[in-house]
Design a protein that fits this description.
Elements: E1 8-9, E2 13-15, E3 22-25, H1 35-40, H2 52-68, H3 86-98, E4 105-108, H4 117-121, H5 129-133, H6 140-143, E5 145-146, E6 152-155
Parallel strand pairs: 4-6
Antiparallel strand pairs: 1-2, 2-3, 5-6
Helix pairs in contact: 2-3
The chain binds adenosine-5'-diphosphate and magnesium ion (MG).
């Protein structure tokens, strides 16, 4: 996940102070999740009944930011095994980083076998990472989707390769 400092963010996009280049554009197809749906997906937010998980991810965020200083940070989250909370940690750490109104957070789903982040965050599965890597698009704007979490953007896994070109088994979420 990447955390560029924002020059402006008005709901329609965000740009870097260095270049003014637009990084993201709100995806009009993004689903809007209700508070209840966000709770059901175990995504932290302000005003939760049980503040324990939000506090834990805030602590982790604070430690990471202390290490980063003024630099933009990238964090790789990987679980020890499937179903052990990789997506849970990635989304909630990203959400905790996005609590800061001066930051934008870009979460990238690099799990090509079992991509889940788009489902949890309620955005389209594509275009995304595979479309960019395969050259189907060279637009970062096209693959970077706004989510229901303010200041949190997702680059989903992207389109699956054609079946004959893929040796990967069918994909799916673990939870
Ligand atoms: N620390 C946790 N507390 C509560 N639920 C969790 C926790 N870690 C994972 N889960 C739940 O367990 C299920 C599997 O977690 P997930 O993040 O999808 O695993 P992975 O990405 O490693 O396959 C999900 O429903 C998730 O919400
Ligand atoms: Mg996962």
């Amino acid at each position: 996940m990447n955390m560029p400092h924002l020059k402006k963010e008005n709901g329609s996009g965000a740009s870097t102070p260095e270049t003014g280049r637009t990084l993201v554009r709100a995806n009009e197809n993004a689903l809007t999740l209700t508070r209840k749906e966000i709770d059901a997906r175990r995504i932290i937010h302000h005003g939760m009944e049980d503040e324990g998980p939000a506090d834990a991810f805030r602590d982790l965020r604070t430690q990471l930011l202390a290490r980063a200083g003024s630099r933009t940070i990238s964090v790789l989250v990987t679980p020890v095994a499937r179903g052990r909370g990789g997506s849970f940690v990635a989304i909630n750490l990203a959400a905790a980083l996005a609590f800061d109104e001066r930051q934008a957070v870009v979460l990238i789903d690099c799990n090509l076998r079992h991509p889940c982040l788009h489902q949890r965050l309620g955005v389209a599965p594509a275009p995304g990472l595979t479309d960019y890597l395969s050259g189907r698009t060279d637009s970062l704007e096209a693959i970077t989707h706004a989510t229901s979490v303010p200041r949190l953007f997702l680059i989903p896994r992207g389109a699956r390769p054609r079946p004959e070109a893929s040796s990967l088994p069918p994909t799916g979420c673990s939870g």
